[in-house]
Amino acid sequence: MLLKNLFVNFPFSSPSDLPDAEISGIAIDSRAVKPGYLFVAMQGGSVDGHNYIPKAIENGAVAIIGDRDLSGLNVPYIRLENPRQALTFLAAAFYNWPARKLTVIGVTGTDGKTTTSNILYKILIAAGVRAGMISTVNAVIGDEVLDTGFHVTTPDAHDVQRYLAQMVDSGLTHVVLETTSHGWSQHRVDACEFDIGVVTNITHEHFDEHGSYENYRAAKARLFSSLEQTKEKPTGNPRLGVINRDDRSFEFLNEFIKTKKLNYGLGHSADVRAENVEYSSSGIEFIAVSNDFRVEVKSDLVGAYNVSNCLAALTAAVYGLGVDPETAARGIAALDGIPGRMEQIKLGQNFTAIVDFAHTPNALKVALEAGRKMTQGRVISIFGSAGLRDKEKRRMMAETSIELADLSILTAEDPRTESLDGILEEMAEGARSKGGREGETFWHIADRGEAIKFALRLAREGDIVLSCGKGHEQSMCFGKTEYLWDDRTAMRSALAEFLGVEGPQMPYLPSQDKNEKDWLSG
Questions:
Q1: pLDDT digits (tens, 9 = 90+) for 188-210
Q2: What is the distance of C-alpha 493 from the center of its chain?
Q3: I need a labelling partner for 514 at 20 to 30 A (CA). Which of 72, 191, 355, 366 fits?
Q4: pTM listed for this prediction
């Protein structure tokens, strides 16, 4: 595609004398540039893409976009006010606006986004809809499953548009797209033409990025304001907002949304609600009720929060996409589980071992509450709090665990360049403030693998051990390096050692190599 054609429907100001350079791809990382590519230079949190323009040109870039005054380049350079915001529209144009050929269902929230997205996807498949999904875990395009990265939120704008284009080429008609607050604040999904918006909840998270709950909520709310901007499509445009009646964001979103909207919840005032809820260690059962239907729902997912996630997906499917409620219930039942979401690890032990992604105060709270319902024994929690991220939640998560778990082990979770000892001490202060007694009801063990082993040694028959915070993620960051790490593999390795059976090797962390700088001590 000619460079100037990328700007045909560009919504912002741009130069009028664009060159005729032919573009074969778009990249924001100079290492990904191939001959014929457009390189978009952006200022990141710690890296400035403008510094890598020479490398991009060396790798074959035929044009550069940035926001600086630059001269002397041997390829065309286009200065734009906001390259990051421009990228999503340039990528959409490059791939011929794929979202305009799909019904796009956006799912956002602090916790439960991935689970709700997967439930919705299963419902659409059960209804015979040719659907795809883009989540923080993977992209599903027909029979193909693509990994979206070791440690990411919403994929970058040009990757999202490429996935959407692949779905169109594969003959899909619908896509479920999980969106994060970072994805919205960084304009990664601005050109995704959403038809339905779903929110799970908006609780305490990412205040380091957004500054306040109100700003964080506003970033999430952009999903719903985008419904007003979506162009009409041949398949129709439901313009439906689906919101959580039980969440603190409800009043704001109920006033904010200008399109058609419905709410779901566990109480009688919700448009779609749950009755006769039953919980067990093997799943949940309830009756989903509205003014139009009453349907029995069964799921292998556990916990009250997953009742809400099921209701969110069912509301969007039935009222936004016209799926029959009974069919929606079959789709919910077809979901076996989500990688790293209350995932049980079984090697024959006489207690329950679970890996979960809970990395926010609310997510940890509901995971521990679900664990309490699953066992008659004790609840033992293992968790950390990330470095260079929202510091307030370090105390909050420790306080939550002391209140809801019987025993708590504080450990590493992506300390990055911060001192892990310092992070753990902040968490320990929170634990002590709620009556936690170090060495009796809580411990801090820097090495996450050793923390898991320690928790298993504490476990008795009938207890539940919950390792929270990493879930499906495949790496952990120490310093500026992402080390391969999988909590599920670590749990299996620790269980195998505990039981004296063969199992996988414990994943490597830098603290295990005494010749390498020890990031665990900062």
A1: 899 999 999 999 998 865 545 54
A2: 26
A3: 355
A4: 0.85
